[in-house]
Structures are given as structure tokens and as C-alpha cells.
Amino acid sequence: MVGVAGRSGIRITASEVRLDLRGFSVVGVTGAVDGIVVQPPTGSTRRNIAIHDGGVAGWPGAGLAANTTTVNGLRLERVTFSGNGSDGARVPSATIITDCHAIGNGGEGFTTNEGAVMTSCSAVQNSSTGINAQINSRLDACSASGNGGSGFNLGPSVIAKDCQSSGGLHGFSTFASGIILESCVAAGCSGNGFDLNLNTVLRGCIAYSCDGTGFRINRRSRLIDCVSFNNITGGIQVIDGNHITGCICTGNGASTSANGPGILLTGTDNRVEACCLDGNGTGLVASAAGNFIARNTASGNAVVNWNIVANNKCLVVAGVNAPAINGASGGVSPGSTDPNANYSY
Known about the structure:
This protein is an all-beta fold. It starts with 9 loop residues before the first strand and ends with a strand. The model has no long low-confidence stretch (mean pLDDT 96).
């Protein structure tokens, strides 16, 4: 189907509609509006609408524009939105999006409303954010690459698992809280890999080769078993009340004159435990008092392993080398009997 100037391609105004594109595309022309519009009559609502198996390309407006207040229960499956002048797809609350792609659109790739579920979707080379997931949405196995804004912009209480972002501004970005990220990867961003606000949990996430900091988080968040490496500005930067445990920071800030840190604590009430810091510009920097720093190791950082102001809870000792061990026992204490000691080696 090819559009005409001054009009949208397909307009859906009823409930219980299934639009099967059968592998074909809805193609826009100069002067046309949106590709597919889901817009109930004034004063009414619509639900249970499905669009699947085709493409929406080249419309001067959005590929898909669904009213975000009067439509619920939209389902998109195996649809590609490409080369549209505005967003690829703008969808309402409770939308389920599966195996869909947004490529080269002039706005955001996907913009969701409350409670969306996205699975195995991708957003590539869109002019703004790749995937803008709003409150209470869930993302599984989605990817964003080479977008003009951040790969993922996350609203409050979003859960994302097994998602990847490369290029663009930030990999994962939000001003909201209550977010959970698990097994997500950010790489090659011009800004920060993860640029987050507060009350967030990250587990098993990786940030690497970003021009900014791998993980930059404000307050009251947890980083568990995350890895940050070869980021220009630093590995992990937090402000107040965060808990960082079991993380690895290596090669961050080492290539610049700023000698960026593996971990930087700029505020108070942070806990840093059982982390490995090696090959960074500086290992761990605490520029404020009142942090708890225990059971971490630092080695081979360019300037110093530790740069910690007074009045933090921290013990650093130089590790002691053990003789060769061949058998069931041997060696010596690494340098302290204090179970909370941090080690340089």
C-alpha cells in the first residue's frame, strides 16, 4: 500500500481489530501524515487491537501513532518501522511488542506508555532515543544501536533484562527511580554506559569503551557483580547511600591525563565491598567522609591504588607474597587478620 499526500495510511477506530500485513509494507509519500493511526472517536476507548507481519516505512510523521489515553491492549508482532519522519512507533498503555524493529526514524524508535512489555525488539540509527520505556514497563532481550540519543530511556519501575546498547549518548538513562537492570550491556557510548538516578538495582551488568563513565549513579542504589572496563572518564561513580559489591573495574581512565578512577565516591554513606580494581588511572577515590570500604583489592593503577579522605571506615594493607605452594597446605596471611581489610598487591 502506498500513501497519498495529506492523509495517513491506515486508520483504526474500532476494538477487536487484527491487521495482518501479510509481509507487505505501508509506504508513505511526501506530504502524507502517519503510517498507521489508532484513534477512537471522541469520548470513546478501544482495546484488543493487533498489528503484525509487515512494515511501515517512509511516512513524514510517525510510523505508528496510537492514542495513549483512549487505547489499551495493543499488540505488535514482527513489524518493522523504518525511515519515518518522526517516531517509529508511539504506543499506549499495556502494549505488547514482540520481534519488532525501528530503523532510521527521525524521532525515537519506540515510545511506550505505562505497562508495556517488549521482547526481542531492536532500535537502530534513530535520530533520538532508541527505546523510550515508560512507567512499569518490562524489556527482555532488546537492543539499541547507533541512535542519536540514548539507547534506552527508562521511566519509573521499569525492569530490563538481557538488553544491549551500543553507540549513542548513554546506553541506559533515566531521571526516575525503582528500576531493575539485570545482565544488560552498554558499549561505545559517547556519554556514560549507565546514567541512572536513585533506588535502582543493577545485577551482572557490563559497561565498556564509553567516552564517559561506565556506571554513573546518584543515590540509594545497588550494583552487584557488575563489570566496568576501558571507559574514558572512570569505571563507577556514585554520590550517596549506594552499595557496590563484587564488581570489577579495570582499565578505566588510564588512557587520559585525568587518570580517572575505577570507583569514585563523591558523597557519603556508601558501602564498597569485595571489588577488584586494577589498571585504572586511580583505583578507588573517596572525596567525602562517611563511607564504608572493605575487602576490596587494588593493583597496578597508574597514579595510586587508593585516594581516600579522612573519616572513612577503611583499612588498607600491602599484600604479602606467599612462597611457592605445592600440596594441601602452605602460604602466609596476605597481610592482615582483619576480615574487612582492603589490599594493595
